[in-house]
Amino acid sequence: MNIAASIRDILVTDVFVEVPVDEMHDDDSLRDVYGLDSLGFVELRVQCEKRFGVTISTDDFTPENFATVGDLTALVDRLRQDTVAAGAQPR
C-alpha cells in the first residue's frame, strides 16, 4: 500500500472521517473537506508516526504539511527518506 492510500486508511479507520476512501482526493483539504479539528490532526500525526515509523517534529507539524493528503504524503515520504539516509530502516 502506498503512502497516500495508507493515510486515507488512517483517516477512515483511526480518525473516523466519514468520507469513503474511494471519494478522497490528494488535494482535498483535511480541515474543510474531511472536517478534521485540532484533536483529529493530533491523532493523524500519531497514527502516521506509528504506521510509517517516522517522527513528526513540532517544526514539521504545521498547517502547510497537514493541509491535504498530498501534503502529508510528501512530508511522510521526506521523513522516511531522511530515516533511511540516517541508517535506520523505516517500517
Task: Sum up the structure in keywords.
Non-ribosomal Peptide Synthetase Peptidyl Carrier Protein, Chain A, 47% helix, mainly alpha, globular
Topology diagram in text:
Elements (H helix, E strand, L loop, with lengths): L2 H11 L24 H15 L16 H17 L6
Helix pairs in contact: 1-2, 1-3
Helix-and-strand structural type: mainly alpha
Strand elements, count: 0
Give the oligomer, counting copies of the same chain as homo and different chains as hetero.
single chain
At the fold tier of CATH, the topology name is Non-ribosomal Peptide Synthetase Peptidyl Carrier Protein, Chain A
| Rg (CA only) | 12 Å
CATH superfamily heading: ACP-like
